[in-house]
Write the structure tokens for this entry.
Amino acid sequence: MLTREQIKAHYYKLFLDDELSCRGFVNSFVGSKPTIKDTTSYVRPGRTHFPDNATSRVFRESFLYRLQLFLLVGVPAIALIGVIFQVGEERPLWLNRLAALLMLLALVISWWKTMQRKEHRRLEISAAGISIGHRHFPWMNIVGTMMVRRLGENKKYKLVLLLDNGKIIRHDVEYYYSFLSRSRRDISVAIEHFKSKVPGW
């Protein structure tokens, strides 16, 4: 009968092989490896300040992430409309008004769409396990939790769950980043807090 640590070591090797297979040619040539850290490495004893009576911790898309998404989607859409209509040149007044209306409409739609909370990105960590959107992973089925950053993906870390059936779950943590928090640390602290209360972990 394999222990949890032996199962984790086996699936970690499979996970590492999978990550190494995703490297580009240059990274493969120079032997560069992705950054992988166990969630325990983000926990500082005496500095977590996690309430013992908490039953869960929920992470939703941060305003900063959605604002960045809006700037990447909404602003180019407005600029494209402006280029197409070339507002400001000698054109009929109605055409300039139509361009302004379309730009305003694009701005409102982009803002509304990007400010909506996406429930499939909702991350909940509790004594029962980890839920990502509508998917739930009980602690008894999780053998490892870590953060990974692939080469060339600046600051784009993913939460990785190694499951006892061999599946590897990856989930972006950049959704939850804000000026006042560090998503990797906060998620890791919540994971280790609830994991510590599970018998056998």
Notes: The mean pLDDT is 80. The beta strands are 35-38, 56-59, 123-126, 129-132, 135-138, 142-149, 157-163, 168-172. The CA atoms of residues 129 and 138 lie 4 Å apart. The chain is about 40% helix and 20% strand.
